């Protein structure tokens, strides 16, 4: 059932072209109008929302962080992302004009469920992005957008994460259309770019040996840092989380702009640093800023491991290692840039002889508080 792979995690990494394609399947009609799976509120009410709060934990919260960039850009609605357990233990400001978007693979995470219940009591509208049909969180929500990643067996989330990000894009396009922020043509263009993602993930998977070799050479590392800006920031956070949870290596993700506010003090000779580099075709200042961050850490002895877009020759001068991902619009880049980091963690943990599917101390579904 592992389909010839050494672990469920490896198999699920390879399931990702299908997870993204299936999550997009049948969502849009010829006019670019999108559909949600369940909608128990009047779309007119969704139209009137004044802010979105995304609630989730762990990897699912990083999907929420990616969503913030896309939804704010496409819909011009303020989006906050908050960990469910932080949200529920303060007195968050929500009302009937707030849309709560919960993201949960299992649909049973206790903190997320409780946070959603609290928000609902305050009159907020609730929408669930979930991978498990009929689980508690979608049942209790006003609207549901299912991710179609299929059952995820490995404790460390991979394909559910990419499917969650995909679903948040669908939600962004849905709201953008509903509120008149996006024209049909724009929606169609973005959907066309999304439609190309599965083949681009496959291209990365076909070249996975490049990153696996790097991973095996790094099995004795004590600490690995991950840097990113903009949508590359949550990708860096997710890369670090994967490494800590299955390879038990100290790993931290940072917003690259924070370097000089503290983390750069950690850099000394040989410190491995992954850097997620945005497209050089995108907002120009973003690429240049990240390239200068690579130079800053390199000048202090870091071993720079770069994830960059195909054709970005610039970065080679500053990198010990470069893995290229296919071109895509910046907002969609996490669907590609995350994959080599998942492969890296999975291969490194496998090389260390760990059970990557059942990491110590972790459960697949956190139904306790
Ligand atoms: C990490 C991981 C966890 C989950 C988190 C939320 O690989 O799997 O961080 O993302 O426990 O779980 P769900 O999405 O089921 O609410």
Short description:
This protein has 369 residues and is α/β, with parallel strands linked by helices. The chain has helices spanning 8-14, 16-24, 43-47, 58-75, 84-87, 110-121, 136-140, 159-178, 184-195, 197-206, 208-217, 232-247, 284-299, 334-351, and strands spanning 38-39, 51-56, 79-83, 98-104, 125-130, 143-146, 223-228, 250-255, 272-276, 303-309, 321-325.
What does this entry look like structurally?
By secondary structure, this protein is an alpha/beta fold. The mean pLDDT is 96. It has 14 helices and 11 strands. It has helices spanning 8-14, 16-24, 43-47, 58-75, 84-87, 110-121, 136-140, 159-178, 184-195, 197-206, 208-217, 232-247, 284-299, 334-351; strands at residues 38-39, 51-56, 79-83, 98-104, 125-130, 143-146, 223-228, 250-255, 272-276, 303-309, 321-325. The strands form 2 sheets. It has a 6-stranded mixed sheet with strand order 1-6-5-4-2-3, with helices on both faces. A 5-stranded parallel sheet has the order 8-7-9-10-11. Residues 57-60, 104-106, 109, 112, 156-157, 241, 245, 365-366 line the site of fructose -6-phosphate. Residues 41-181, 214-359 form the SIS domain. Catalyzes the first step in hexosamine metabolism, converting fructose-6P into glucosamine-6P using glutamine as a nitrogen source. This is Glutamine--fructose-6-phosphate aminotransferase [isomerizing]. It is an enzyme of class 2 (transferase).
